């Protein structure tokens, strides 16, 4: 069993895609062990995306992710980290395989609807950043 951090970004929430994305996750069979709608603080956004702090799009990324409510999720299941990454598809929706969230529901790299941890280290770090222990099912 593996846990990963997943997020519906502000564009997805704003466009009413939360039910569609939750349906896909549950149809796949991941267990949603943490779930909350929230605003991300500037500080949390900079920490979450710290690996990109020197990239030219960093400022835009932080203002986008803090610009409206997100849905933060902790998912549990076999191979959940790579599995959820696979369900999301490539970062740029133009390169995402048909049937993936980004191919089906997004058009631009900057607003690509969902986030998913890319490794067990980042999953652990991101789950800690967004959830306290008592917000997660045992
Ligand atoms: P991913 O979200 O697939 O893990 P990433 O970690 O490389 O992708 O980048 C994080 C987010 O930053 C990505 O979802 C959208 C934004 N981003 C990445 N590359 C970008 C670019 N070249 N221009 C604008 N935004 C970009
Ligand atoms: Mg990433």
CATH class: Alpha Beta
Q: Given the helix and strand composition, which structural class is it?
A: alpha+beta
Shape: globular
The small molecules bound here are: 2'-deoxyadenosine-5'-diphosphate, magnesium ion
Low-pLDDT stretches: none
* Backbone CA Rg: 14 Å
Assess the beta-strand content as a share of residues: 15-25%
Walk me through the structure.
With 138 residues, this protein is α+β, with helices and mostly antiparallel strands. The chain has a single domain (2-135), classed as Nucleoside diphosphate kinase-like domain (Alpha-Beta Plaits, 2-Layer Sandwich), CATH 3.30.70.141. 41% of the residues lie in helices and 19% in strands. A 4-stranded antiparallel beta sheet has the order 2-3-1-4. It starts with a strand and ends in an 8-residue tail after the last helix. The mean pLDDT is 98. Bound molecules: 2'-deoxyadenosine-5'-diphosphate and magnesium ion.
List keywords for this structure.
globular; 7 helices; binds 2'-deoxyadenosine-5'-diphosphate; binds magnesium ion; 138 residues; alpha+beta; single chain
What's the SSE blueprint?
Elements: E1 2-8, H1 10-14, H2 18-28, E2 31-38, H3 42-48, H4 58-65, E3 70-77, H5 80-88, H6 101-105, E4 114-116, H7 120-130
Antiparallel strand pairs: 1-3, 1-4, 2-3
The site of 2'-deoxyadenosine-5'-diphosphate has 9 residues, from loops.
Summed up:
By secondary structure, this protein is an alpha+beta fold.
């Amino acid at each position: 069993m593996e846990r990963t951090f997943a997020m519906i970004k502000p564009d997805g929430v704003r466009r009413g895609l939360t039910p569609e994305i939750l349906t896909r996750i549950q149809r796949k069979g991941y267990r949603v062990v943490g779930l909350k709608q929230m605003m991300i603080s500037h500080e949390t956004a900079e920490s979450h995306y710290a690996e990109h702090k020197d990239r030219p799009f960093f400022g835009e990324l932080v203002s986008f992710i803090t610009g409206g409510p997100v849905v933060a999720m902790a998912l549990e299941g076999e191979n959940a980290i790579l599995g959820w990454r696979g369900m999301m598809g490539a970062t740029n929706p133009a390169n995402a395989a048909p049937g993936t969230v980004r191919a089906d529901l997004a058009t631009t790299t900057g607003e690509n609807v969902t986030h998913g941890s890319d490794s067990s280290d980042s999953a652990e770090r991101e789950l800690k950043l967004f959830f306290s222990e008592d917000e997660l099912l045992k």
